[in-house]
Amino acid sequence: MSGIIIAIDGYSSTGKSTFAKAISAKLGMVYLDSGALYRAVTLYSLEKGLIDKDNNIDLEGLQKALESDIVISYEQNDETGLFDICLNGVNVEKRIRMLDVSSSVSPIATVPAVRNFVDGQLHLYGSEGCVMDGRDIGTAVFPNADLKLFMTADAEIRAQRRLDEMKAKGEEADFEDVLKNVLERDYIDSHREMNPLRRADDAIDLDNSHMTIEEQMVWLSGILKERFGIEMQ
Ligand code: CDP
């Protein structure tokens, strides 16, 4: 699978990253989480007061920070083997998944300068082949990706999955708050001007509302065989 790019796009909490990680482990491909980059920029903005609680953004300050102060790097996690994201040298892989970041990330991701910054990083690390998940990978970041998947699932099921994930990490959250955040992000992501969340014309749909990750892998193995002649064990 070297040199091959698999783009996985879809709505919030459809399990894109779980699927992408499983594919990366099975096929030995680099995994890149584009959402983590938007989340890291959001965390920086929250810490520096570049976004307030009503999600008003200091666009000039953010633009300057992107040009000179935000440095993204990666560090291999001994337990997972995956690469954790670091913001200015600090590993923020866990911090960026918390609800305060989730609540501000979609407004930050509408800012063109932020999208250009993230796209640059994704091309830097992913051009040689990868499995990458996000909202605009198959439409804007890698429109020539070798395989494009578009994931959906019922909103309530997605909110429950996100809640279970948060609870497992010991984070308190309320189902209604999580559902509201999921729906708000879907709305902002699909209505923004620059590179909105949209199914690429040549994407293959996957509704995993009632599928396990194992069932998804079986589904994928059929596609890989048909498309690339690859047998996935
Ligand atoms: O995992 P989850 O569905 O919660 O979202 P994520 O992949 O971590 O992405 C967080 C947010 O970043 C999304 O809600 C989008 O607003 C933004 N994003 C984007 O605009 N474009 C991407 N390619 C990836 C994420």
Mind explaining what this structure looks like?
A hairpin with a 2-residue loop joins β4 and β5. α7 packs across α8. It contains nine helices and eight strands. The chain has a five-stranded parallel beta sheet with strand order 2-6-1-7-8, sandwiched between helices. A three-stranded antiparallel beta sheet has the order 3-4-5, covered by helices on one side. It is α/β, with parallel strands linked by helices. Bound molecules: cytidine-5'-diphosphate. The site of cytidine-5'-diphosphate (CDP) has 16 residues, from α2, α4 and α8.
Overview features:
single chain, 233 residues, alpha/beta, three-stranded antiparallel sheet, 9 helices, 8 strands, 48% helix, globular, binds cytidine-5'-diphosphate
Quick structural overview:
48% of the residues lie in helices and 15% in strands. By secondary structure, it is α/β, with parallel strands linked by helices. The longest helix is centred in the C-terminal third of the chain and has 17 residues, at 175-191.
User: Which radius of gyration do the C-alpha atoms yield?
Assistant: 17 Å
Proportion of residues in β-strands: 15-25%
User: How far apart lie the N and C ends?
Assistant: 14 Å
Structural class: alpha/beta
- Main sheet: which strands, in order across? 2-6-1-7-8
Extended strand count: 8
Provide the helix percentage: 40-55%
User: What is the residue-averaged pLDDT?
Assistant: 95
Write the H/E string, N to C. EHEHHEEEHHEHEHHEH
Q: What can be said about the biggest beta sheet?
A: 5 strands, parallel
Low confidence ranges: none
Shape: globular
What ligands are attached or bound here? cytidine-5'-diphosphate
Q: So how many helices?
A: 9
